């Protein structure tokens, strides 16, 4: 079973409907949450604005995070600062659930995969992987893992610049 089938089963079990729909110009996806448990939540995505199947999946997973964490939902007319704070929280939750620190570290340094390869392996976007890397690499836990890696293997792990070079060559 692939990621997409697992997502579909998980969403269905949570009574979340996913529908294709034309959305306002700046929105690729959005969700509608209802207080009444008899009415399912809905995730709308605009297929015309999706560049890849991984982008579609990330957009749907992002909206699912809003549904799972109602404190991150907002109305479209809320102040931009509040929206950005809530979107940052969702991004952090996405990292923790779909790209845990230990998993990303292992894929980068032990399996020696590029960001593109990790994105393909996890069916996520390169941008989400890059953002997770940027976030995690600033944490003390990451720095400690990196130091241990260097002490144990005596070699420099793949750097972000090296990863970016792979991406440039590949495209």
Question: Could you please describe the fold and organization of this structure?
Answer:
By secondary structure, the chain is mainly α. 58% of the residues lie in helices and 8% in strands. The protein has 8 helices and 3 strands, in the order H-E-E-E-H-H-H-H-H-H-H. Strands 1-3-2 form a 3-stranded mixed β-sheet. A hairpin with an 8-residue loop joins strand 2 (29-32) and strand 3 (41-45). Helix 2 (53-68) packs across helix 3 (80-98) and helix 5 (115-122) packs across helix 6. The longest helix has 19 residues, at 80-98. It is globular. The mean pLDDT is 88.
User: What structural class do you assign from the helix and strand content?
Assistant: mainly alpha
Side-by-side strand order of the widest sheet? 1-3-2
What is the N-to-C order of secondary-structure elements (H for helix, E for strand)? HEEEHHHHHHH
Major sheet: size, sense and barrel closure?
3 strands, mixed
What characteristic shape results from the CA principal axes? Answer: globular
CA-CA gap between termini: 29 Å
- Helical residue percent? 55-70%
Unreliable segments of 5+ consecutive residues = none
Calculate the mean pLDDT score and round it. 88
Per DSSP E runs of 2 or more residues, the count of β-strands stands at: 3
Strand content: 5-15%
What is the gyration radius calculated from CA atoms?
Answer: 18 Å
Tally of helical segments: 8
